[in-house]
């Protein structure tokens, strides 16, 4: 089936929306007393029992309960959601920030488990497993030729810390089978993708979500950058759908002076809880820039809002998603959970940046489509703001509530990428799969190359661009790439750099021609 490229922004936006559902989470337990107040059967309990005992056909009442819970929550707001047991385990692991496993990045290539790259200093790397290896057996369990779903693969490879698993691997470069004993260990799931120097005085930190370990990861990166003498810091929150608000607050505290307001929440009873900065801030005087886009949400907006409303730094990019609701999680015995909106949060000037949701959840998450149609991704003048929701910062700057954070410096998507459909494509997993398959054909072509030699090799030819263009055509995507050759080559080169040299090298390539980075480093007069 052919795929029409005009729907790419919508599909990518919907994907990010799923992440944004997790929202700004209060990392606090639900009061057990709330659950224990009434042990009498409710109308719903009685109905389920009645169906279970008397209905003419056999039926799975658990599925009815799940549908009922989903339906109830859908009537509340877009961020009060039910999470099934299988999804909840994955979400909880991601927010925890680590898991016990063997430490590999992999994907199902054709009918086998192909290792893209072992995690540096992880169990598999220490055991001698290499990029390009195929895992044939995990213990006695056959993994190839079965097209196993990811959750089944994970269950075979995960286990108890310190437990050992024997992997039978096929190494293509040597054309032979090898066996490795791998001892499982704790594998971090990074929420800070990169912390690096852009020049002698400017640091850069990319945060992909706000998990339990985010502040510690951020502080480690910031400390290292400060040791290198930075005077300015860029915090990249693009496509960050949120997470634990406490982590965003802790990061904001690094930049604000003692007793400055960071955020406040208000619940149904009107009870307000204010959170202020402490004396612990380690970067209270240097310049701060925060990068946001239409997929930056919730905890990302708390951090951006605190910086903007306190006149502490400059917000660069495009209007953020617009989520000003806070959830608390309640777990069930079957491993599922409900996330219920329990409060609204407000930035220091008193604005709620929550966008309207009265037209229902579907319209709420499709709002990103209207931004494309209205032209606001291309021109700041097209951003619609409500004058009735106008606020002033301490220095008199006008900011708006009611629908996301409007940046101080606008960077249109067209200027950033040249062609938004191609740009969306280049940020999907398809580039990683293409690069792996090219390396798999001839990994020796890059053997022994220093990074600068690698860059020179990539710039010397359009061979990989042409191969990628053919690769896209074979998938059925209706995209013309010739007018965006520079963009495509940049992402291809960056992905080669990631798979060959590591994550930081990806950012070393990708940020050099990034429009938002240019807006910070080379502002227009």
UniProtKB/TrEMBL annotation:
Entry keyword annotation includes Endoplasmic reticulum: no
InterPro entries the record matches: ClpP/crotonase-like_dom_sf, PDZ, PDZ_sf, Peptidase_S41A, Tail-specific_protease
GO molecular function, one term: serine-type peptidase activity
Family matches, as Pfam families: PDZ_2 (PF13180), Peptidase_S41 (PF03572)
Protein name, entry field: Tail specific protease domain-containing protein
Transmembrane segments annotated in the record for this chain: none
Family (UniProt): Belongs to the peptidase S41A family.
A cellular component term, taken from the record's GO annotations: outer membrane-bounded periplasmic space
GO biological process, one term: proteolysis
Domain Tail specific protease: 175-356
């Amino acid at each position: 089936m052919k795929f029409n490229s005009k729907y790419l922004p919508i599909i990518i936006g919907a994907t990010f929306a799923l992440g944004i559902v997790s929202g700004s989470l209060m990392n606090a337990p639900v009061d057990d007393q709330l659950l224990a107040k009434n042990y009498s059967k409710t109308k719903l309990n009685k109905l389920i029992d009645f169906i279970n005992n008397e209905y003419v056909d056999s039926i799975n009442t658990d599925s009815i309960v799940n549908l009922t819970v989903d339906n109830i929550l859908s009537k509340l707001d877009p961020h009060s959601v039910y999470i099934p047991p299988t999804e909840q385990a994955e979400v909880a692991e991601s927010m925890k920030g680590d898991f016990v496993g063997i430490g590999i990045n992999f994907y199902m290539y054709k009918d086998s488990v192909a290792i893209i790259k072992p995690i540096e200093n992880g169990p598999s790397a220490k055991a001698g497993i290499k990029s390009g290896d195929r895992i044939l057996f995990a213990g006695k369990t056959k993994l190839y030729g079965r097209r196993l779903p990811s959750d089944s693969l994970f269950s075979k490879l995960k286990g108890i810390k310190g437990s050992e698993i024997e992997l039978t691997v096929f190494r293509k470069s040597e054309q032979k089978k090898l066996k490795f004993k791998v001892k499982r260990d704790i594998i971090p799931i990074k929420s800070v993708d990169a912390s690096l120097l852009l020049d002698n005085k400017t640091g850069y930190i990319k945060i992909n979500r706000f998990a339990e370990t985010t502040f510690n990861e951020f502080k480690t990166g910031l400390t290292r950058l400060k040791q290198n003498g930075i005077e300015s810091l860029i915090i990249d929150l693009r496509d960050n759908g949120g997470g634990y608000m406490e982590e965003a607050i802790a990061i904001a505290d690094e930049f604000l002076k003692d007793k400055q307001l960071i955020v406040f929440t208000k619940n149904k009873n009107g009870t307000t809880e204010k959170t202020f900065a402490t004396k612990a801030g380690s970067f209270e005087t240097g310049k701060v820039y925060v990068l946001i886009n239409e997929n930056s949400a919730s905890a990302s907006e708390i951090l951006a809002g605190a910086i903007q409303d306190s006149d502490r730094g400059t917000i660069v990019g495009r209007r953020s998603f617009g989520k000003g609701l806070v959830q608390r999680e309640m777990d069930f015995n079957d491993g599922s959970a409900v996330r219920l909106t329990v409060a609204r949060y407000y930035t220091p000037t008193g604005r709620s940046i929550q966008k309207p949701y009265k037209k229902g959840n579907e319209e709420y998450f499709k709002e990103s489509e209207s931004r494309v149609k209205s032209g606001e991704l291309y021109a700041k003048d097209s951003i619609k703001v409500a004058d009735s929701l106008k606020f002033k910062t301490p220095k008199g700057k006008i900011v708006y509530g009611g629908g996301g954070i409007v940046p101080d410096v606008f960077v249109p998507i067209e200027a950033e990428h040249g062609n938004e459909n191609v740009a969306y494509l280049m940020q999907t997993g398809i580039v990683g799969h293409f690069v792996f398959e090219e390396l798999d054909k001839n990994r020796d072509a890059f053997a022994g190359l220093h990074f600068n030699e690698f860059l020179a090799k990539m710039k010397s030819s359009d061979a990989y661009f042409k191969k990628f263009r053919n690769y896209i055509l074979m998938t059925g995507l209706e995209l013309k790439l010739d007018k965006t050759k520079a963009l495509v080559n940049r992402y291809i080169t960056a992905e080669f750099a990631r798979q060959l040299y590591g994550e930081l090298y990806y950012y070393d390539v990708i940020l050099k021609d990034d429009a938002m980075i240019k807006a910070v480093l080379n502002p227009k007069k």
